[in-house]
């Protein structure tokens, strides 16, 4: 019977066959311990010399990453986190590996990134990708279960959703086009048709940043909701993030353990989340020793970390100055200098994971903001038209997948959270 490693608990005491690779091995003159992987998990296989000397010699000669069919009996093993192992009775080599470059020793980051196509096979990278996969699954579950429809905005666009110059330019036949920075504007159009929608796709930022929080290509989850005010949107964000955390804790226990993730920090992530206004955050930073920061300045990573450290779970920074936020954000009626927006700052130094706002729903106001921002009015005519035919208050937000994976898995650099990350100096492999 052929099974996968993750099915082993259902086959205790049975003889089975597993297609797998050799991750590592160790042993003595009498026994070989084979660390096996098959994509679904990791398990130890044991080969005892006195049981079958020929099989023992085969096991002893195996090289790292050799592929094989391995047959044996599944046994309980309380010493391993997986809880099961195999008493090996037969090994059928499929392909013998020689000179695998990533050996069981420390390697530099650049070497590992050059070999990303192979580094993905390691236990820790496997765990990170499992957590990423769970976040993706849980995202679909959350939004579908709560009445949202998925829409797919175009990746090629004629203008910038954010109104910035950090765009990748290309030719679209005889027109100029850009790789999308965000699906938000298109999601707004879809929300006017379907009420509650979300998009989930790749976005691109031509930002020459080398920080541990930045990628050139990354994935965004962007819900947009008709008839939702800013406060309504904040509640959705809290519920969604809490759901992601609980699902990862429930379904990725072995992965979190493999990454040495302190889960007590994640177990505290329960809604509602604390909130602090931008203005109060400036005062807090001044009290913490950031004397140079002034009202109107944007926050950098040290500022976000300091604010997050003041709380024991994610914190919303709300109502940023109008001048440092995007043109489409609704003005704050209690302070016209600011807009109805929020950034959700993750604890433990992981920075902003969500940015959101209530959108301007008045035609004349939005038109004025587009003109004040120096944008091409013709390029945004379709977006303006959403305010001409039954406009309603609406809100939305964007969650960065890779930053969220980094936070929940506890890895220090966002490059480990994408299968093949695109960085300022990296387009290979």
UniProtKB/TrEMBL annotation:
Residues 131-429 form the Aminoacyl-transfer RNA synthetases class-II family profile domain. Signal peptide: none annotated. It is an enzyme of class 6 (ligase). Its main location: cytoplasm. It catalyses: tRNA(Asn) + L-asparagine + ATP = L-asparaginyl-tRNA(Asn) + AMP + diphosphate + H(+). SUPFAM superfamilies: Class II aaRS and biotin synthetases (SSF55681), Nucleic acid-binding proteins (SSF50249). Its EC number is 6.1.1.22. Keywords: Aminoacyl-tRNA synthetase, ATP-binding, Cytoplasm, Ligase, Nucleotide-binding, Protein biosynthesis. It is found in: Cytoplasm. One of its GO terms (molecular function) is asparagine-tRNA ligase activity. Pfam families: tRNA-synt_2, tRNA_anti-codon. Belongs to the class-II aminoacyl-tRNA synthetase family. PANTHER family: ASPARAGINE--TRNA LIGASE, MITOCHONDRIAL-RELATED, ASPARTYL/LYSYL-TRNA SYNTHETASE. Homodimer. This is Asparagine--tRNA ligase. It comes from Salinicoccus siamensis.
